Amino acid sequence: MRTPMIRRAAPEDAQRLTSLVRTSGAYRGPYAAMVAGYDVTPEYVSRHEVFAAVGTGNRILGFYALILAPPELDLAFVADDAQGAGVGRLLMEHMLTRAGEAGLSEVRVIAHPPAEPFYRRMGAERVGMSPPIPPKVTWERPELRFALP
After folding, report:
1. Which end of the chain is less enclosed by CB atoms within 10 A, N or C?
2. Is the Cβ–Cβ distance between 35 and 20 less than 8 Å?
């Protein structure tokens, strides 16, 4: 796979971003309720720092959404068939650079439990646990923090 290009997501990408969220293999089984019916709306894409990794044929391989106030990585997804190819690392490096350019000193992440090892490899530190938010989220989630230089 050639290195994807990172570009600002556009409102017209919302449907493809929603598809990445809803079809994520990481949210099968007990985690499925969290993404069932989830929509990444054009308004959301316009309002936040949403960037996509784009591959051959303008295919969106992954994306992240950074909220600046308060600073939080709200969404981060990589297509199942693109995982393990460095797309997630590329997106996180871009997110940290973008957060630094925006003047942030840290970025909070409430992680999907299976994703915690990935975020820790990217340099995040666990600072606590976030409680369940029923009815969709019935499990604790790791709270992590990226410290920016």
Report:
1. C
2. no
